[in-house]
């Protein structure tokens, strides 16, 4: 019998994670089929997307509330289809606010429910662990400090590491990347990553451009690379450049190529999120910034209990790189931090050393580990010719 895997992945990061997991599962069970909600990378692996992954992209509580009825309707329809024709296993990739309720309903009907990427219970809303225990058959944890939290709560968990640590080079070649991009080797270069979502650009684009102008005043030879993932975000940033009257700044827009931009850079100004981990794994000093709707920030601040929000600092357990959140994220503070970091050679070396340690810790052959954990949850285990009853 064919292995049937239902999946839900939201946004670009979930699409990437899921696509590698699909490839690893197909290597073990070549005739497996995959369907549900997913993105283009999953589709390239043969995934049948009933809804596109970007359908689930929301930014903060305000956006989630506005789209609650729409997303609830999609989840209800998906649950109905999956219960009517049950898959062998369901994998929810991140998107916990969407996936956990769905996983609970499927698990209650005897369908194994795997949640790939632990919700950030170590940062805020730790009470969700009770809901997670009811909802999932197994958590696949990306970070080394997470399994202990789940084990203490009685939640089956597997530490699989982070796939980006497998994909990104341990020692990126900055000189070769600068040559590829046509950038002088000695020029001060900064990568600006104001976010992959349109909502993030609305809050951060103008601030990042103003910070670049201030950096340029102190470092006249400075250049800036801005990788943007979609036509919509590129257009938004171009509009921000016009609005800020910044056409004179040496800002080069790239369509994608975020990794190349970060590798080529001396420093990175980045919105809090997965890109901060990418910058750390590429061994680049950074300054982290974030802004969101006031009401969303108010709620998150009340429920949070870590002094930092950036993944590199969370993984290090201390402030390795500076963070500026909400009103603190002013152009002046961001520019000051970028220039100070650029000038501090010893400090930069210490940052790189810590990022190398994190990289080794997260490099675990993630997709292979995740595939093994998923298959261990099946009621029917794969055999040479398909599935056999366990």
From TrEMBL:
Recorded GO cellular component terms are: membrane
Q: What class of enzyme is it?
A: transferase
Q: Which GO terms describe its molecular function?
A: lipid-A-disaccharide synthase activity; phospholipid binding
Q: Per its UniProt entry, which superkingdom is the organism in? A: Bacteria
GO BP terms: namely: lipid A biosynthetic process
Per its UniProt record, what Pfam families does this chain match? LpxB
Q: In which pathway does it act?
A: Bacterial outer membrane biogenesis; LPS lipid A biosynthesis
Under catalytic activity, the entry for this protein gives: a lipid X + a UDP-2-N,3-O-bis[(3R)-3-hydroxyacyl]-alpha-D-glucosamine = a lipid A disaccharide + UDP + H(+)
Q: What is its EC number?
A: 2.4.1.182
InterPro entries xref list: Glyco_trans_19
Assigned keywords, A-Z = Glycosyltransferase, Lipid A biosynthesis, Lipid biosynthesis, Lipid metabolism, Transferase
Its family remark reads: Belongs to the LpxB family.
Q: What does this protein do?
A: Condensation of UDP-2,3-diacylglucosamine and 2,3-diacylglucosamine-1-phosphate to form lipid A disaccharide, a precursor of lipid A, a phosphorylated glycolipid that anchors the lipopolysaccharide to the outer membrane of the cell.
What HAMAP family does the database record attribute to this sequence?
LpxB
Q: What is this protein called?
A: Lipid-A-disaccharide synthase
The species is: Azospira restricta
